[in-house]
Structures are given as structure tokens and as C-alpha cells.
Design brief:
heterodimer; A: mainly beta; seven-stranded mixed sheet; 6% helix; B: alpha/beta
């Protein structure tokens, strides 16, 4: 979907996206990192289950909602990647967990 | 933690940064709350970390942001990045979240410098994966050095559509066409403003150069395009459009939409500033005086959040607002404020001279303002279509706020940011009234989602302070 013009710096961090290990750039947003992994979709909508990807990349549209380190409904375009971060698609509504 | 400062600025784009530097120099204690992780706003996004090659691809205007960010870093202004403001009160108190914790701060004077948003782009299929705002793709280029990996079409109108097309081409993206909704009649409407625009001829020169660069790269520019639609099932596979009455399709992996920008009025609306409808570009803006002061005594606005004038003008209005804040708080007298403002006003007038021409040349097309196709989704969050909205109006919904009760339109996580303009236009059209009569959503706090954990952290800190 998106490709990097330059390889991530040697000090790049790795994140886990749905079991896939991604080497990503320092300071990159989660949404940017996921877009390089050809993800198909990053969430499905709560109403009809339609697939979505990040749309505005500036925190306005909320189409980039994902589950980050176990917390659902995070704006992936506003979260900076951290080494070892676990990122999952937000499928439909968030589930309440104990 | 409740900090009290003389000048509290919300937003770290050109207006907020320039205002902070000016205010700091005038002896005001200054705090900047910015949702982004680094200074620059969207226009200078990633300016401190951009790869040198990407920076040269983005061009000189983008590079200008480095000096501003540098001056800001050198100032004594208190800077809090990653701080999402979710409530502003009339008395100047502000609630925000940062690092998972809620906090409050109070400004004797508040400057809302939250900039612009790309206008909603409701065409059929705009929710499909692979369809994005052109500005979104530009953010990826600026902040991550990324470009779309397959064939790309940019569709829409306005100077930013041209700029982003040129930048993507220079960065090596496979741009196959630029589809412009701008038509011959728009040039006729714009012609009377050409003389005024000559005062800002630099913009005219840049616009011509962008077109030349795009054409020189062999990328066709199709003008007078209508009835745009994104085509595909689970992702976009083509863009469809009409030109000279004939329908065509171009295969794409990525479709980038851009129909101009509009002020982000979430905060000014939430704190009940008066707003007015700006007819030439069909957007709302807060009513403000020559210093950016709004109808709320403690609150001013600077930059594109008050009306679209561009990045350089935004920095100037930020400085004007800072001068006014310093005057109101006794740091400088009125004569001093006015003396310092005079050259800024001259420069601002020069930049503003291009606007009547741009407004006339790049009107948001009717297809975008009030989507004619009933199946087009208007509210991306709740998946409410143009037809659903018209039906609700037929059933008696009298305005945007009542429409919420009928349909949940505007009640999803984006809180109406992506549908508000379209909803007001559709209701106005269906009811045969002006958009001003129809009005806009009532925006209520929290204007960003807040978790209970963030609120709990805020309460715990307040308890510790007691």
C-alpha cells in the first residue's frame, strides 16, 4: 500500500502487527508502520463490518482505530511506535474485557 | 497539576509556534499544548526529523518551517507535545490528555491555533481501503518518507492538490493522472481577481510551475472532471469520472482526494464562539477582529482555524494575536502594539491578495458539497448515506442536531468532523434554506475521546494537590 523511500535507520524499532514482525522507523506513527505491511484493512466498522484503512492521517477521521498493546480504539495515526508494541486490527466494536 | 500562564496556545503549527515566539519575547509566560509529537503542525509536519532527500522533494516552502521550529525551540515557551485538548472553558481553563493522564491548565488568554482540515470528500466509494485524503498521503511523505506503492490518481481541486501531485511525482510515486474538478467557467469567475492577485504574484508563479512540473513528468492533468467515484469491493481498484459527458475509468491502487481545506472549528464551537458562513469557499469560521479576538472575552484565534490564508499568513496572525495578548496584560501599551503590528499587517495583506482568485478558481464542486447520489456515505463513522439524511429531513428532522436523534449521523468517534459540512449543506438544500439558517452541529466536550483511566489519573492528581 505504501513503501518507504529510505530503509529504516539502524536503530529502528520492531513492532508486532497481527503476528507479523515489522521493522519500522523511529518516531513513525503506528498507522504509517501498518500501511507498509500491505494490511488490507486496519479495522472493520461497528455498523456493517466494512473494511477501512487510515484516511486522514491527522487525527480527525478516526478510521485508523486499532488495538495497541491490548487497548482497543486507539488512533493509530496519533500513536508513535515503541519497540515491542503489539498492534492488532480493531474488528467491529471494542469488546469489554475483565 | 493546574498550571496558570499568561498565554495558553493550542496547536503547534505555524500560527501557534510564531505566536509562542512573539509572546515569549514580550514577556508573557507561554504554554503550548500540541496534539502532535513534534512542532510544525500539518504543513511543517516532521520538519525536525525529515530525511534530507525527502525535504528537498517537498520543496522550499516546506523547508521554511525549520527556522520557525528552531526559533520556537530556542524560546522559553513551555511545550507539551502529544497533548490532546478535549475541553476549553470560557474562563480560559483547558482540559487535556497527555501520556494517558488527564490534566488541566489555565490561560489568562487562550489562543486557538488548531488550523485547518481537509474538507470532507463524500464521493461514492470514499470509504474503501486505498482511498485517502491527499493531505494524508502528504503527512506520510513528510513524517515517514513514504509514498503509495502502486498506481495513484489525485482527484479534486485547489493548490494543495497540485502541490501534493508534484511532490509525489518527485518522490518517485507512480502518479498516473491528476483529475481536476476545476472547469473553464471557474477561470472566468477568477479572472476579475487577477489584478489583486498580482500583489501576491509569487503564488501565481508557483502555481504555474507546479503545472509545468506535473506535465513535464508526463502525468496528464484532466480538468472539468465531474461525477467522481471510487470503484471496488473490499478495496479501491479504479476511479471513475465524467468528462465532456463521457464516463471513463482509471485503474488505481491508491486514490487521493482533495477539495480544499476548511477551518477546524471544534474548539471554537465547543466554547461557544460566534461563527459565520464563508460563502466563497463554503465553510464556517469563527467571527474575529483584526487581532484574532473572538466573541469570547478570553479567547482568540490565529491561523487557518480562523479562515484559510495559508502557512505564512498563519504565522503573521499568530504574532498579531500575541501582540494583542501582551497589550491586554499590560506588557506593552496600545501604541506599541499597533506600531509593531503595522509591518505584519502589510505583509499579511500581500499574502491575502491571492485569496479572492483562489476562492473563485477552486470552489468546492456541488458533488462534494451536497452529494447527489443517495447511496454515497456522508457519515463515515455511523455509515449514514446522503439518502438517509434526505429521508430524515422528509420525516421532519429540522437541523443537524435533530438529525442525530433520527439517524445517529455525526455521533461516532470523529464527532462530526468528517460529515458536518456535508450534513448542513444537504439539510439546507432539502429544506430550501440557506446553510446559515440550517446551522451546524452543537459541539460538546470532550471533543476528543477520553478514557476513564485518563480521568482517574486527573482526579488522583487533584486529590494529591489538595
Amino acid at each position: 500500500m505504501f513503501r518507504r523511500l529510505h530503509d529504516p535507520e539502524p536503530e529502528a524499532v520492531t513492532i508486532n502487527f497481527e503476528g507479523e514482525i515489522l521493522k519500522v522507523g523511529v518516531g513513525e506513527t503506528v498507522a504509517a508502520a501498518v500501511l507498509t505491511a500491505n494490511p488490507g484493512h486496519s479495522r472493520t466498522t461497528p455498523v456493517t463490518g466494512a473494511p477501512r484503512l487510515p484516511f486522514c492521517m491527522m487525527g480527525a477521521c478516526f478510521d485508523c482505530l486499532m488495538e495497541i498493546d491490548g487497548i482497543p480504539n486507539r488512533q493509530a495515526c496519533m500513536e508513535i511506535v515503541q519497540d515491542g508494541m503489539k498492534v492488532r486490527r480493531q474488528e467491529g466494536k471494542r469488546q469489554l474485557s475483565a | 497539576m493546574n498550571d496558570t500562564v499568561d498565554f495558553l496556545i493550542i496547536g503547534g503549527g505555524p500560527a501557534g509556534l510564531a505566536a509562542a515566539v512573539e509572546a515569549d519575547g514580550l514577556g508573557l509566560s507561554t504554554l503550548v499544548l500540541d496534539e502532535q509529537p513534534a512542532p510544525g503542525g500539518q504543513i511543517y509536519r516532521g520538519i525536525e526529523s525529515v530525511h534530507p532527500e525527502t525535504r528537498s522533494v517537498l520543496g522550499d516552502d516546506y523547508g521554511q518551517g525549520a527556522a520557525l521550529a528552531g526559533a520556537f525551540r530556542a524560546s522559553k515557551a513551555d511545550y507539551r507535545p502529544g497533548a490532546a485538548v478535549w475541553r476549553v472553558d470560557e474562563d480560559g481553563s483547558v482540559a487535556y490528555s497527555q501520556d494517558g493522564k488527564g490534566a488541566t491548565a489555565t490561560g489568562t488568554r487562550i489562543l486557538v491555533a488548531t488550523g485547518a482540515m481537509e474538507r470532507p470528500t463524500p464521493i461514492p466509494g470514499w470509504t474503501l481501503p486505498g482511498v485517502m485524503t491527499a493531505g494524508g498521503a502528504q503527512v506520510l511523505l513528510k513524517s515517514s518518507g513514504m509514498v503509495p506503492s502502486g498506481p495513484v490518481v489525485v482527484a479534486g481541486c485547489g493548490p494543495l492538490a497540485l502541490l501534493i501531485t508534484q511532490q509525489l511525482i518527485r518522490a518517485g510515486a507512480d502518479v498516473v493522472a491528476l483529475l481536476e474538478t476545476t472547469k473553464f467557467g471557474d477561470y472566468l469567475s477568477a479572472a476579475p481577481h487577477l489584478l489583486t492577485a498580482l500583489r501576491a504574484r509569487d503564488y501565481l508563479r508557483k502555481g504555474r510551475q507546479l503545472r509545468r512540473d506535473i506535465r513535464a513528468a508526463g502525468v496528464p492533468i484532466h480538468s472539468g472532471v465531474d461525477a467522481l467515484a471510487a470503484v471496488g469491493e473490499d478495496k479501491v481498484r479504479a476511479v471513475s469520472f465524467k468528462r465532456n459527458g463521457a464516463r471513463s475509468e482509471i485503474a488505481v491502487d491508491t486514490l487521493l482526494l482533495h477539495f480544499g481545506v476548511a477551518p477546524n472549528t471544534q474548539i471554537t464551537r465547543q466554547v461557544f464562539c460566534d461563527h459565520e458562513w464563508y460563502e466563497p469557499q463554503r465553510y464556517w469560521r469563527p467571527v474575529r477582529d483584526a487581532w484574532g479576538a473572538t466573541s469570547q472575552a478570553a479567547i482568540a484565534v490565529a491561523g487557518d482555524g480562523g479562515g484559510i490564508d495559508g502557512a505564512v499568513a498563519a504565522a503573521l496572525t499568530g504574532r498579531l494575536a500575541a501582540l494583542d495578548a501582551a497589550h491586554r496584560q499590560g506588557k506593552i501599551d496600545q501604541a506599541e502594539r499597533d506600531r509593531r503590528a503595522a509591518p505584519l499587517r502589510d505583509e499579511f495583506a500581500t499574502h491575502q491578495a491571492i485569496r479572492p482568485l483562489l476562492d473563485a478558481l477552486f470552489p468546492p464542486p456541488p458533488q462534494i458539497c451536497a452529494p447527489p447520489d443517495d447511496t454515497t456515505i456522508v457519515c463515515r463513522c455511523e455509515e449514514i448515506s446522503a439518502g438517509d439524511i434526505k429521508e430524515a429531513v422528509a420525516l421532519g428532522a429540522m437541523g443537524p442536531n435533530q438529525l442525530k436523534a433520527f439517524t445517529r449521523c455525526g455521533m461516532g468517534p470523529c464527532q462530526g468532523r468528517m460529515c458536518g459540512l456535508t450534513v448542513s449543506e444537504l439539510i439546507a438544500k432539502a429544506r430550501g434554506e440557506t446553510v446559515e439558517e440550517t446551522g451546524y452541529y452543537r459541539i460538546r466536550p470532550p471533543i476528543k475521546p477520553v478514557t476513564l483511566g485518563e480521568l482517574a489519573a486527573m482526579a488522583a492528581m487533584a486529590a494529591m494537590a489538595d
